[in-house]
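Q: Structure for this?
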Amino acid sequence: MSGIPMEGDVPATIAPSAPVPPSAPSPGRKEEFDWVGSFAPSIPIGDDAGRPWRLELPSERWKEVTLTLDRALHHRLASFWAEHWTDGASRLHTLWMGDASCRGIHLITVLPAGNAGVPSLLPEIPAALYFEREMREMYGVEFLGAADRRPLLLHYQHSGPPMRPGTSPPRDARAPFAFPITEGEGIYEIPVGPVHAGIIEPGHFRFQVVGEQILNLEVRLGYTHKATEKRFEGRSPSLGVLLAESVSGDSSVAGAVAFLEAVEQALGIEVSRSAQLSRGLLLELERMAFLLGDVAGIALDVGYAAGAAQANFLRERSYEGLEMVGGSRLGRGTLAPGGLARPLASDMGTPLAETLALVARGNEELLEHLLSRPSVVDRLRGTGEVRTDVARALALVGPAARASGLDRDVRRDRPYGAYREVAVRVAGERAGDVEARLKVKVAEIAEACRLASEFQRAGALDSAKAPPPLPARSAGDGLGVVEAPRGEFLIWVSVGEEGTLRRVHVRDPSYLNWPAIEYAVKGNIVPDFPLCNKSLNLSYSGFDR
Amino acid sequence: MSTHDPGSRPDAPAGGPFGTLVTGTYPEGPADPVGRGARTPLHQSPRCEGTGECALACPTQAIEVTGRGKGATFQLDYGRCVFCRACVDVCPTGALIASADFELSVRRREDLVVRHGAGRAPPTYPVDQRKEAETQARIQRLFGGSLAIREVDAGSCNGCEVEVSALTWPRFDSERLGIHFVASPRHADALLVTGPVNVNMRLALEKTFRATPSPKIVLAVGACGISGGPFRDSAEVRNGVAPTLPVTVFIPGCPPRPEALLYGIWLALGKLEQRVVQGELPTAASGTPKR
Ligand code: SF4
Ligand code: SF4
């Protein structure tokens, strides 16, 4: 719907996926409204309740409008993607989100076939770097003036941009890739990976070091790239859930919920309150297990094995909790469009409550044990610092952002599903070091236990199997934004007239957070790299897809 | 949870860091039934009416139904299955039920395919039983007491990594069985490979294999490692480990639960028998399918 925007949640021409409760217009929403309104009527403005404001820009105004947005609203770049039309035109999308209550801004521009490209958003918007590199190699979109033109995910040469239709598989020839070089007396390089030493994912790290001190780190990713976004295309939404779970398997539930939120918005599918509560319960159980793994990793890397064992024991109990209620340890295969794939185990109320209480108690004790040991604290404090200004420029999300003084959490800022009913206490620290990230994570485990209990009491286990979804329309596009354990997980889908997925864009939180590690390690000693790494816990598969 | 004191589930008091023993006994003892989801599709042909709905609901095309009605042929590949239960949920006749079987690992890929119905021609494969027995005896003699594993992620979604690392946590604690994960292929007896083997990791996987001293075994883990799983037939993946490396044992799951990994490792070592033959599950054989 295009037209002049009006304040507040105007009645929708298209029913939103779930009722949006009337909220007091916050200052953030007012600012968005004023900024969007300043472009009317020269730019068509889309205003569907429950969705971000949508502005369709002529490509000549792409960069100018983006920069005014950046200056006027202090929104962060949440995502940036392309889609391709059969006539050869590309559509570019950026999505901007604010902290605290906001609707978000969605900018779209069309590049006709054979266009010369658009101006790069760099250097003004540093967070755009990876997005632009990916769009250049995947869609062949040119970003004029960009300095870094290296490939991002593709290691081998392709006959053409692989996301365009009709391109053939990669060739045997490797694509050239240049690492930055630092020269000087006593400077040496440490190459690490792609196969690492632990049970973790593959990626390549190139350190430049003098003595013990890290001068520079360049990360090369893409090693787990499997063209997941392309695999979505042509599938029905129900068959897409598995792929959304497999973006980053340790956040299976978050991936599935983000995907389903997007599909449900696109097609106007209603989800019952009890199914929303069940999704909330699964999301919080997943968060508990995930963050306990981070705590265990940090404890292990400072050589505090007993603490790591305790955290891993609690983590195991959290996965047991997930399996008790949903039948799968990682919560896979439990969700479907319109609700759940099947009801949760309603007879597991008592053991679930026991598990939640046990994890909550154990987690509290764990923090005491960790922070009362000077040998532990000594390794954590001041290590791997990510300053607030760096975190803001990189548009970090999740615990990594919250430990660096940025107050952002989707569960509170743009509540979805069951989070519309609860007040989420958002953790925060300012120091931006490993200690701060540890404290944030421990606080978030406690909050996850509390929210899970709240959802359980509200009836999360009493949900029924989703009735066959009743789409209000057969095609459309939609956005799902979920707070995953690593931060904002975002999926945008476009469903074609045949009811199959036409384009799915996946933005794992790690896509934004990966550059943080290159900053965090600067000036640290090499043996502290694992701590920086574990405390940021970045997903390789989420980035590479 | 099965413990050294079967029957009592030790809840660490107050969740204290040095609480009671929580280690399970599997695979020496029985697996812990607590909370174990029944997610393995089990097909009972007498009830099958060949509607083919299961095949349409399957996200990995693990099921093929040829023909319709009572005479239809039903085929299910546990190497492609991700244990999502969708087929069980849609089966209108109850021919597909969910069992809690997890001891699904096999030495031969063909053994993961079950085929029922008219025109049933069980897959045939050449078996040199004497040679196989010799290999098994040798593996057990060499690695039966202690096995050093190098894990290689060849493009996994990292779900499999969660369960592989769970082997090193308190409850499963694979070190008690002499199974440890080492940092370098130079120290390894076995490669445990997850992921569909994507184009960008294939070279690193081959190099890691070459860097591992012989004799060595290869474990292909998860739907991805066996068949490419959810990513099968993507231009960027090679549909599993077998096209690239010689595989000793295939461990199904998405991801395989930790007990399933332990079973697969012990199967590779010849310490346990293979239970799935030509795709028939152990519960189907014993006639006591669980729901
Ligand atoms: S349980 Fe396995 S066979 Fe059944 S639908 Fe899921 S993946 Fe397919
Ligand atoms: S088998 Fe499943 S869990 Fe394992 S890597 Fe593949 S998609 Fe992920």
